[in-house]
Structures are given as structure tokens and as C-alpha cells.
Design a protein that fits this description.
With 181 residues, the chain is an alpha+beta fold. The protein has 6 helices and 7 strands. Keywords: Transferase.
Amino acid sequence: MDIRTAEYQDYERIAHLHATSWKTYYQDILRQDYLDDDVDEDRQLIWQTRLTNPPFNQHVLLIEDKTGLLGFICLFGNHDFEKGTIIETLHIKPSHRNQGLGKLLIQRALQWVEQFFPQSGIYLEVMEDNQQAVDFYDHIGCSHHLDRDWLSPCGTTIHEWVYTWESPNELAHALEESMPA
């Protein structure tokens, strides 16, 4: 298994996994016509744009094996003045879920945050109805602190929970505590 920084030529594989994940886990959250007709093209455009000329505070990591892309994480350092660095996206291939790959990607991403944004808090936003993600973040010992509404790409307003940690070390500790001995 290999973890590396994403490059421009990875955008199609990332977009495909992102769209597949949304189609799998966002049923009854995002509009079905968007998932059926638009999500693939939308994610292609997003990832091509993000990887064409990435901003200095963007960091995208991939986890791969000989079979291909297993997952990815995208962060934006010091994204919010009060909350800090956002874990904007984390997706694992459905066939490889519950194997610790999400935790592994977060741990590796936290090394980048610690290097470039050490005084930054960490946060992420999770759709309230995205139960598998809520369960994952609850499992690593965090709880939601703020609520917000997100205008999704399909035009619907979705209620989200915001999870926060005071520092990269606080999240790293939470991950270590949640791992079996």
C-alpha cells in the first residue's frame, strides 16, 4: 500500500471514486436526478480544476495498492480563521471500507498540517443524514459542535454537523485512542 500526494494526472481516478462514493452513500441525501445525470461530470470538473493549479493551502493524498486507487483525502490549511484547517473530503472505495484506511489517510494528512499550519485547529463538515460518516467520526471520539446549512451542488439545502479539534495533535490523539491495541 502506498500513500502519496495527488498529481494532475490523478484527477479522473479521484473524480470517479468521489462520484461513486456519492452515488453509493448519498442516496436520499442528494437529489436522485443529480446522482444519476450530473455527479460524474461535476466531480470531474471539480478535481480537474483543483489539480490544475492547486492553491498553496490545498493538500490531496491518495492511498493505492496494485489494484488502483483505494481512497483519498483533501485538506485546505487554515481555511477558516476560527476553526482552522478543513478536512474537506475523505472517501474510501466501498470495497475497502472498515480497514483503517480513512484513519491512515487522516494521520498522514495531519503530518502536513503539523508542518505547515501547526497552530491551526482542524474541522470537517458532515451531512447530518450521512450516517456512515457520522458513525466514523463518533467512533474516533469526537462530537459535533456547530450546525450549518450547505447548499449542495444539486441545489438542495442540507443540514450539516461541524466537528472540530483544537489542534492536529488533538485529532491524532483521538485517532490513536480509537485504534484497537
